[in-house]
Design a protein that fits this description.
Tumour Suppressor Smad4, alpha+beta, 13 strands, 13-stranded mixed sheet, Rossmann fold, 277 residues
C-alpha cells in the first residue's frame, strides 16, 4: 500500500472537528483526502472542499463504514475497510459529477442524491437514532408513511415544465442508490453530466407498499405512478408547502430550489469504472 506510507491519520469526534481537519489538510496542500465514514461524512467533506475552500483540484476518497454508504454501493467500492483504503489511496482518480442546490441565498453540494417529500422525514427520523442497522431505513420509511400526506410541487427540467401535482417524493440522483441499498435510480451514471429524476406521484398507500420491494431491485420505474427523466438543471417549486431538501442522508435547505449538475466537479479515488451500476 504505497499511499499509506505518506498518509496522516486524523480522528474527529464532531462535525466541527472534521471541518477544521479538512481545512487544515487543504491549507497544508495535501492532495488526497480519504474519509472513513458514510454518506454524511462524505457530504461534509465535499462541502468544505467546494464551498469553504473552493478547491476542485484535490482528490476525495472513501472507506465506507457508515450506516447507509449508498454512494459506495453505487460505485462498487470495496466494503472491506483495508481493501477500500488501498483503493482510495492508490487508485487513479475518476472525475465525478456533483449536484449543486441553490435555495435562496444558500447553497449546498451533494455527491449522491437530493430529494424532497417523505425522504426528508425518513432521514430526520433515522438521524435521531443512535443504533442503526440494515432495517433502520425501511422501518423509518414505514413509520413515516402511516401519517404522511402527499405534497404539491411543480418540477421543471432544463427550463421546461415536466410534472405538477401531489407527490410522495422527488429524487434528483447522481448515484444509483439511497436509503441503505434502494436502487432508486438504476440507470444513473455519476459521470455522465446528467441527473436522474424520479418522481413518485400521489397514489394509494396500499399500492405504494405493494411496489416498495421493487425499489431494492430497481424495478419500480415500471409502476404507473413513478416517473423518470434526465436533466442538467432541475427547478422545484413547492408553492405554499413548507418542505426541506434531504441530500446524502442529511436534512439540509428549504424548498423551493434549483439543482444543477456540475460535470466532473470532483476527483474521486476508488471509483474506477464503476460510475454506473
Amino acid at each position: 500500500m504505497p499511499g499509506l506510507r505518506a498518509a496522516k491519520l486524523v480522528q474527529c469526534d464532531s462535525a466541527g472537528a472534521a471541518r477544521n481537519a479538512i481545512h487544515a489538510a487543504l491549507t497544508a496542500a495535501i492532495r488526497r483526502v480519504v474519509v472513513l465514514g458514510g454518506d454524511g461524512t462524505l457530504h461534509l467533506t465535499l462541502n468544505v472542499m467546494l464551498t469553504d475552500a473552493r478547491d476542485t483540484s484535490r482528490c476525495l476518497g472513501l472507506v465506507p463504514v457508515g450506516t447507509g454508504s449508498d454512494l459506495a454501493r453505487g460505485l462498487g467500492l470495496d466494503t472491506r475497510p483495508m481493501h477500500a483504503l488501498t483503493q482510495a489511496l492508490d487508485d487513479r482518480p475518476t472525475p465525478l459529477d456533483v449536484l449543486h442546490l441553490q435555495s435562496g441565498i444558500h447553497s449546498r453540494y451533494f455527491i449522491n442524491e437530493a430529494s424532497l417529500g417523505i425522504t426528508a422525514m425518513v432521514a430526520a427520523r433515522v438521524n435521531t437514532l443512535r443504533h442503526r442497522n440494515a432495517g433502520t431505513f425501511l422501518a423509518a420509511a414505514l413509520r413515516e408513511l402511516v401519517n404522511y400526506q402527499p405534497k404539491w410541487a411543480r418540477v421543471s427540467l432544463d427550463g421546461q415544465r415536466w410534472r405538477e401535482g401531489f407527490f410522495f417524493m422527488v429524487v434528483v440522483a447522481n448515484g444509483s442508490r439511497f436509503a441503505k441499498g434502494m436502487r432508486i435510480a438504476p440507470m444513473a451514471n455519476a459521470a455522465d453530466g446528467m441527473a436522474d429524476i424520479i418522481l413518485v406521484e400521489a397514489t394509494s398507500k396500499a399500492l405504494l407498499l405493494a411496489w416498495l420491494p421493487s425499489i431494492y431491485l430497481g424495478k419500480h420505474l415500471k409502476a404507473p405512478f413513478v416517473h423518470w427523466a434526465q436533466a442538467r438543471s432541475i427547478d422545484i417549486d413547492t408553492g405554499s408547502e413548507q418542505l426541506i431538501f434531504e441530500g446524502d442522508g442529511e436534512v439540509t435547505l428549504p424548498a423551493p430550489g434549483n439543482i444543477t449538475v456540475l460535470p466532473a466537479a470532483v476527483l474521486f479515488s476508488g471509483a474506477g469504472h464503476h460510475t454506473r451500476t
